[in-house]
Amino acid sequence: MIQHLVGNRKIILASNSPRRRELLAGLGLDFEVRTLQGIDESWPSDLQGEDIPKHISAKKAAAYLPTLADDELLITADTIVYLDHQVLGKPKDADEARAMLKRLSGRTHEVITGVTLACRQTEGEVSKTFAVTSLVTFADLSDAEIDYYITNYRPFDKAGAYGIQEWIGYIGVTRLEGSYFNVMGLPVQRLYTELAANCLELFLQALGVSVEVVFFAHKRQKKCL
């Protein structure tokens, strides 16, 4: 269904995340996974909220763009857990994971994913970045529940030290506002919408042709028929 939206363009998912690979595959798209090491994922200290993952996602795209062929469309993403105007990143050990989950316990936090669509052609490089926010509320988590989750699921590769699709999500999440898949790492409904609306636009921009010009030409052609 969706493959016709991208035509013969090859989709490149720039991500090490198995969850993003699973979610993108669920859209019915053919794609290749491509990864680069050593990309700087820092952000300016004055950025807040959605601007943080948007900045990081765009920075990832900038690193991959020189590797793209003219017929390839790049997807990059970055997800943060955001509480009290602070980013809860991936915990480096069990102690840090425990501290994060205790902060999330009994409270509502934001999960924000920034996504960038980009392509490269001889005439130039074009991209679009957007962000999606979901609100997640946890029940009060006991120390035993937190320790059980950390011991058995080792969430050291997950922002905020948890995966909503895992045991902690089953027993702990009392409310979710927004996209569940966004909390997993990729807002696939919004991505589908953006691909449908912007895939053609991205490539026309790379060719130096505006969508308005194409629309005008199409209307003029219909009048001549």
**Unreliable sequence segments:** 211-225
Average the pLDDT over all residues and give the rounded result.
Answer: 88
DSSP helical segment count? 9
Q: What is Rg?
A: 20 Å
Q: In percent, how much strand structure appears in the residues?
A: 15-25%
Structure keywords:
225 residues, single chain, alpha/beta, Maf protein, 9 helices, disordered C terminus, elongated, 7-stranded mixed β-sheet
Notes on the structure:
With 225 residues, this protein is α/β, with parallel strands linked by helices. The protein has one domain: Maf protein (Alpha-Beta Complex). The chain has nine helices and seven strands. Strands 1, 2, 3, 4, 5, 6 and 7 form a seven-stranded mixed sheet that branches. The C terminus is likely disordered.
Summary, kept brief:
This protein has 225 residues and is an alpha/beta fold.
Topology:
Layout lengths: L2 H4 L3 E4 L4 H9 L4 E3 L17 H14 L7 E12 L2 E3 L5 H11 L3 E14 L2 E15 L4 H11 L13 H6 E5 L2 H5 L3 H19 L4 H14 L1
Parallel strand pairs: 1-2, 1-3
Antiparallel strand pairs: 3-4, 3-5, 5-6, 6-7
Helix pairs in contact: 4-5
